[in-house]
Design goal:
The chain has 142 residues and is mainly alpha-helical. It has 6 helices and 2 strands, in the order ααααββαα. A hairpin with a 5-residue loop joins strand 1 and strand 2.
Length: 142
């Protein structure tokens, strides 16, 4: 089943509305992604709060909400990238405490990978989201 011109237009409108793109930008994206491809099923899109997920991963890696271990042969680059960001609390001008994740080293790719794995584990039900953290809206909506 290939997409008709009308179906591509409908998809372009949906993409434009979702990502607030100009119509020409959306059409280019749709043409690129639907060139010779066949639509075989539905693909879910999951969005998450990055700071909340980093809080959840930090609790997990520190053993607060589950066991965490890494192999002995793990390279130094993994450790450096997993610790590339730190959680800091700062007081704003009104005296309120703001929590920020501050990047201390440029390369944090393994941290990003672990965050995506954490999302997949929460979405699949393998891990429970911490109270007040990622996934709470999903659980309370059920």
């Amino acid at each position: 089943m290939s997409l008709s011109g009308r179906e591509k237009e409908d998809i372009a409108k949906e993409v434009a509305a979702t990502f607030k793109l100009a119509d020409t930008q959306a059409v280019k994206i749709v043409r690129r992604s639907t060139g010779r491809a066949r639509v075989r099923g539905h693909l879910s899109l999951f969005q998450w709060s990055n700071p909340s997920l980093k809080d959840h991963l930090a609790l997990f890696t520190h053993g607060v909400i589950g066991p965490w271990s890494i192999p002995k042969e793990t390279g130094r680059d993994y450790i450096d990238q997993m610790t590339a960001e730190v959680r800091e609390e700062r007081e704003d001008s009104r005296g309120r405490i703001k929590v920020l994740w501050v990047q201390k080293r440029r390369n944090n790719h393994y941290l990003d990978c672990e965050l995506m794995i954490d999302v997949a584990a929460i979405v699949s039900g393998f891990l429970k989201a911490a109270q007040g953290g990622v996934g709470q809206e999903r659980e309370s909506a059920a």
